[in-house]
Design brief:
By secondary structure, the protein is mostly helical. The protein has a single domain, classed as Glutathione S-transferase Yfyf (Class Pi), Chain A, domain 2, CATH 1.20.1050. Helix content is 57%, strand content 5%. It has helices at 3-10, 35-47, 80-89, 100-127, 129-141, 148-166, 172-190, 203-217, 224-230, 233-247, 288-294, 303-347; strands at 19-23, 52-55, 70-73, 76-78. The protein has a four-stranded mixed β-sheet. Helix 5 (129-141) packs across helix 6 (148-166) and helix 7 (172-190) runs parallel beside helix 9 (224-230). The termini are far apart.
Length: 348
């Protein structure tokens, strides 16, 4: 069942300039917390192209976390809108084996996944208050540096709600109906198959895997989409096969925070998380050892210097605390108003 997909990975492309993929780090056993970042990794692996992964929380200044994934090909940085066209221009084409008719069919399936299943996933993650507060908000905040972790999840949510309103999908029934229809169609197509086409995995497989694994792995308290997907064993087997073939493993699924209190989100820290799915050079580092070594000697500061340092530290902590309180208060107080506002826009 896996032979077609395995055959694709055997065709490794010649080594070229180092490709670096800037993305959100993994979560819940998925290659990335963001399905668009997972898709970029899956596409490169289907093509057999080596690459390196750069954690967004450790990236150099100047990048926009609202435009991930970003591909760095030598000195050029390619944003999501042009990422796959850039790869194809460089000879990295996951659809190279497809005929013209199969490419047209692939485009139709890709649109179904991104426009219907993607819309339902957007609603489940960002419009469902319980899911956003318990899972999505802390997940993204932990993957961003200070001060972005304090306000960026709120900004991302506003963008998601605006997108849902423009597409007329602010209603729970509409979003989940579209997602359910997409899951049923995918299940019919992929039942008993390892890929969409007989020639092996292609770009549409990378797209389908990225959204299906997000639905399957994200432990949302209100998991309507996940429950529907788990009721389709053939589709779950497809996700497991792709993950095992191209990412080397398929980790056990996590229960939702509602059923397992141990999975409640940890406190906000703004620190970068671990990165188990880096496919390239393993860049270690960290300044903890030097800090520990520096703390071994006796302080030579005068009492006046120590008082100044203490006041400075208190001032910084006070400023950070004020920013955090403002961000939380804005999110909590404005949450219901945002939903009412977007619902009103949709009715108009």
């Amino acid at each position: 069942r896996y032979c077609n997909m395995a055959a694709t990975t055997a065709q490794v492309l010649p080594a070229g300039p180092t490709l670096r993929l800037l993305q959100y780090s993994p979560a819940w056993g998925a290659p990335s917390v963001d399905p668009r970042c997972t898709k970029a990794q899956a596409y490169l692996r289907v093509c057999g192209r080596s690459y390196e992964v750069e954690d967004a929380s450790a990236a150099a200044p100047g990048w926009s976390p609202l435009l991930l994934p970003v591909l760095r090909d030598g000195a050029r940085a390619v944003e999501p809108d042009g990422l796959y066209a850039h790869l194809r221009e460089g000879g990295i084409d996951a659809d190279a084996k497809l005929s013209a008719e199969e490419r047209a069919e692939s485009a139709a399936w890709t649109a179904l996944v991104e426009e219907r299943l993607g819309l339902a996933l957007l609603y489940a993650c960002w419009a469902e208050e319980d899911n956003y507060a318990a899972v999505l908000k802390p997940a993204y905040a932990q993957r961003l540096p200070l001060p972005l972790c304090l306000y960026l999840p709120w900004t991302m949510r506003r963008r998601a709600l605006s997108q849902l309103a423009r597409r007329g999908a602010m209603g729970e029934g509409v979003a989940y109906r579209l997602g359910g229809e997409a899951l049923e169609a995918l299940n019919t197509r992929l039942a008993g198959r390892g890929s969409f086409f007989a020639s092996g995995a292609s770009a549409v497989d990378a797209t389908a895997f990225s959204y299906l694994t997000a639905v399957l792995r994200c432990p949302l308290p209100r998991d309507t989409l996940r429950a529907h997907l788990k009721s389709l064993p053939a589709l779950c087997s497809y996700v497991e096969a792709f993950s095992t073939t191209f990412f080397g493993s398929f980790e056990p699924l996590l229960p939702s925070p509602e059923t397992d209190p141990r999975l409640r989100p940890p406190p906000l820290t703004g620190r970068p998380t671990a990165f188990p799915y880096a496919f390239g050079a393993d860049e270690g580092g960290g300044g903890e050892a030097s800090e520990a070594a520096a703390g071994g000697g006796k302080s030579s500061r005068t009492p006046k210097q120590r008082r100044f340092k203490e006041r400075s530290r208190n001032a910084v902590l006070g400023a950070l605390g004020g920013a955090l309180v403002y961000a939380v208060a804005t999110d909590l107080v404005g949450g219901e108003e945002e939903l009412d506002e977007y619902a009103a826009d949709e009715q108009q």
